[in-house]
Amino acid sequence: MHPFNFLKLVTAVLLLILRTSGFGQCPVGQLTLTTQMEVDDFNIDYPGCTHMTHTLIISGDDIDDLTPLSMLDTIDGDLFVLENDVLINLDGLSGLSFVSNLNISNNPQLEALTGLEGLENIGFSIV
What is the pTM of this model? Predict the structure, then answer.
């Protein structure tokens, strides 16, 4: 193998390893979680994801536990927590320190905003 081609191959492999292990894999676009199973699988589907660059929507009839999202630190898009009939707290969002926009509405069992104490910055609005 020509030395230049070997170097390109090694570089490509190293970049692939760094991309999948060192920096985490976050969704590349808006993500909507509509079932508890989708919330539970977040760590499997997006291992190491701590910094989302797009909107996250959490809206589902059976969503009652957000703790699988606890590793999220930053959402550079909007965070919508909408129409979750059985959600009673936001404890799984305790790792968040920044979100661009926050919209929490129509969650009839939500008793308090516990879980958002770590938010240091909200970019624009809270609804």
Answer: 0.79
